[in-house]
# Entry
Amino acid sequence: MPRFVIIDTETTGFVPKVHRVIEVAAVTAENGKVTEEFESLLSIPSDFEVPPAVQMLTRITLANLEGKPTFSDVQKKLESMCEKGTIIVGQNWPFDLSMLRGEGFDLTDHPWIDTSMIASLVFPEMPSYSLGYLSDALNLNHVPKHRALGDVHATYELLMKCIERLEELPAADMKKLQEVAKRSPEGYAQFFASLEGKGKSAPVWIKSVKQGARSTEDVMPLSLKPPKAGVVACVEEPLSDECVGRVIQGLESGTWFAVKNLDAVLRRWEMPKAVTVLREAGQMIDSKLQERFLAQENYTADEVMLAMKLCLYDVKGKFDLPIHGGEYQSFSAKLACTPESEEWLLEAKKAQKEPTILSHAELLRIARDTPDVLLKNLHVVIDDASMLEDTITQSEGWNCYIPTLRAAAAGDQELSQCTDTIELWAEKTRNDQSIRYLAPSDLQSRESSHLIELLQSMLTKDLQESVKHALSDLLKILDGDNLSNRFAWIEAMKDGSKSIQSVPDHVSDVLRDRLLERTRLTLLLPHQGEKFSDAYLGHDIPKVTDESAWSPTDIGLTFPIDARMDRMIENALGKNVLLVGSKRVIEDIFVRHSKAAEERGLTLICQGFSGGQGRMQAEFLEAKEDVLLVLTPWMYEGMDLAPKAVDTLFLSTLPFDHPSHAVIGRRALRYQNAFSQYSLPRLLNRLFRILRTFVSHANDDAACIVIDDRIRTKGYGKDVKTYLESLVGSENKKSSENTKGQLPLL
# Structure
């Protein structure tokens, strides 16, 4: 077994040089035994600070750093531990690598491996590959958490667990992985060369564990007859997600059912044999691209794990892979089907003859890109139709996302130089603005003309389809004539990545031209949703409303007076979800309440501080005692918790769109009264979706408690309250009028 040195850092933030390393730890291991340990807190210059959230997460304060050595003081020790022949090991190592480089300690050319990526290869059943989650799930020694030495110990034990699983593979499978590793960065090549496949047959972990889905045979079919040509049927659906199962069970030939989140529906409902699942092309694997990818002469660190997963697992697309980290960009750049791929065309041919379920995104892409014959005479049913403005915007958007180009450019010098030029143009044009709308003058500059010529030249070359789409989109964005009915902008993300995007001024024409004039169209809308549909249907499209599927849902709904969020957090019992208006509020809750929550045994899970969506979901479901999940309403809409998992949903803020949002802010300018005609209808639609999500998670006695005081203090508050009450029914005994002092948590 090679000599390993496991390294971890604690930092004041995520940007090298802008933020500093405040603790470092390293452990060396040889022949499966720890031989040396080192850890040190590090002093930082007086003009730097330790943010409150970092102090709460790590329990490291500026006072703790006083008199400690600087990073340069400990660098020689670290260098001596990283002697020649050592493989550096880190959990999400590229982050620590970049932060250490920012301190002047560059390990870029040293052999290294990332345990989070190896874990994603051999623990396909895990919903998250964060160290905190894996420590709990695999019972790793992780004390203390969020401190460098505790993280190093857990990372080393995770590495040993990964080696155990890898050596369960048969020799033939191990040989496949070793052949791939020979074409990878040196650390992975050395690591896999040291392993031995000892299994006699494929280990059980090769088959990823999947949640059981509910049979649609358990529900009464909902038969939706197609409306007359040119008329949109608006069907009011209840909060209960059983409606989706009923529609699936009632699907007939010639009907396509489009849902917002296809993966979530497939996890929840077992598809009847007669129903075809039509995946998005970009989610499927093109076999020719896979063959080319597996024949590559060299792999990046992200690509090598993806190539190994293709060798181990029987997969047809991204949905079958335990995909993680930078593999998302690599998959999109080098493996994903396009609508011209044989695999997707074969599925589309089946969909013409059979009842079919697909995503909003794929329906809209088909409506945009395919001949009329594919859609002719179809009855198209769209669930979550209140999302149509957003999904059409995304479907019709042009997008050049620079990190995806970077992933595709690995090993391609010409594409790398092109990507550099694009990023330099974007950086100069945005002029330090996080969102910079493009004006005609921006597209008439000398730099823009040069970029257009470069893109035209690049598009004559043999490029991957994903790269062609990105460069073609950018070329269309740079065409000033397209600003007549669209708007475009450059957006810089907090992590430094950039995208250049363009969307239509409005979307109602798209729905009319692409779907209404070619199909029979039924929309499943929130209660009273037809009143709020102008943003995506327009004023002049004939509609007919069907309330036959509608019924109020039996769930508690309360509007307490003088509710205090702090008291609710302090007294939270059971399994609760708290929705707040921004990440800033979440950070404040995390800083002020984490210590007290830990002391009294409350599991506090905060968006942005508790890993990604997969980890938050898993930790919430596995919490044995009291737990509070704190996140934004927008994040909650996509959460996939188990049925009967939640006791209480606290809505601390009415989830209006942020007026500075790149698209919302621009679209609002079209209305005479943007608030009542645009913002308020979007709010009511979102409230329906939030409650619908909650109903799918709620236990039998669950309640939603609305603690935003605007319900009483604002003129529109009465309308919002009346609408919410209509969803649960005026006779619902679980709902409550304004109360004071009757709710112990408040």
Q: What stands out?
A: The chain has four domains: 3-166, 215-284+337-396+507-546, 398-504, 556-728. The two ends are 57 Å apart (CA to CA). The chain has a mean pLDDT of 91.
